[in-house]
Amino acid sequence: MAPSFVSSGAIQHSISGATFPWGAHQVNDVGLLVAGCEASDAALNLNPGEGFAPVLTVTQGEKLSVFWCRATSTSMPAPSIDDPGNHIVGKIYVFRGCVASGDPWNVLATDSLVQVSSSTIPAPAVTTTVPNCLLVMGWGTDVDILFSSALIETNFQDHTNANLTGLTEIGDYRTALGSGGGYSLACGLLPAAGDSGATTATRTTSDGTPQATNVRCTFTIALAPTVNKNRDTNKFRGVFGGVQPVRCAPPTTDQPLWLPDRNLVHPATPVRV
């Protein structure tokens, strides 16, 4: 079963701390809390974390952090993040069908390089080792929207990667609180294991006009699928050592039948051994 995006909580933005509610979820769903703040702010501190643990932080212009938690009930408590200093904006995204134990990702990568000024920003490629990973990509932005406290949903557009199936933007928020900033989040399925290639997105102004930048603040997380424990059809073919059993015909005399090969199966007619 490949992972899929199923819901998200309410977006939160503040010049102090914030509490982040889950979206609708089931036991074993994975929540990714994605939150952005000013690059010069303190590291985002969960308090209380309510089961969430750090995944990554990438900083260039905006500081973008991801935390994760596996749901143990259908009404998980909301985690909080302390006031980082300038602003915070974020949300919990819920995914279903991830590997059921350990970290839910197969591989991840971040990119905070300075680039030639461009409105097209790539999220890093990853190389997966299993098929049917769901790639979750994030792009941070430090651009203020020049309004007193507005929150808009037009940061990035034209998310593109020919290797991914169903590539969809699932979050796009920019706040004007403090010095302003925000992020975009998208996900898409990588059917085959291997190199995903970079996923690009176009950064825009609030009216959708492409806006060039010379910084990147991006990440890619490849969520691993649930393992099919019975996918090896040869695993239970034989009785001993995985060898296909051999059936013998019933005896035609009253002589004992010797079975020297341990892989032979007794015939339907009882015999003396």
Descriptive labels:
273 residues; mainly beta; six-stranded antiparallel beta sheet; 21 strands
Give me the secondary-structure topology.
Blueprint: E1 4-8, E2 12-14, E3 18-19, E4 30-38, E5 53-60, E6 62-70, E7 80-81, E8 88-96, E9 105-111, E10 114-118, E11 120-123, E12 133-141, E13 151-152, E14 156-160, E15 165-175, E16 181-190, E17 199-203, E18 213-215, E19 218-223, E20 246-247, E21 264-265
Parallel strand pairs: 20-21
Antiparallel strand pairs: 1-8, 2-8, 3-7, 4-6, 4-8, 5-6, 9-19, 10-18, 11-17, 12-16, 12-19, 13-15, 14-17, 15-16
In words, what does this structure look like?
With 273 residues, this protein is an all-beta fold. It has one domain. It is 0% helix and 43% strand. The protein has no helices and 21 strands. The chain has strands at residues 4-8, 12-14, 18-19, 30-38, 53-60, 62-70, 80-81, 88-96, 105-111, 114-118, 120-123, 133-141, 151-152, 156-160, 165-175, 181-190, 199-203, 213-215, 218-223, 246-247, 264-265. The strands form six sheets. Strands 1, 2, 4, 5, 6 and 8 form a six-stranded antiparallel beta sheet that branches. Strands 9-19-12-16-15-13 form a six-stranded antiparallel beta sheet, with no helix packed on it. A hairpin with a 5-residue loop joins strand 15 (165-175) and strand 16. The radius of gyration is 26 Å and the shape is globular.
Q: Which whole number gives the mean pLDDT?
A: 83
Give the distance, in angstroms, between the N- and C-terminal Cα atoms.
Answer: 48 Å
* Overall morphology: globular
Tally of DSSP β-strands: 21
Largest sheet: 6 strands, antiparallel
What is the N-to-C succession of helices and strands? EEEEEEEEEEEEEEEEEEEEE
- Uncertain segments are 229-246, 256-267
**Which structural class fits the helix and strand makeup?**
mainly beta
Beta-strand fraction estimate: 35-45%
- Our Rg estimate from Cα atoms comes to 26 Å
Percent helix: under 10%
| Count of the domains | 1
Individual helix count: 0
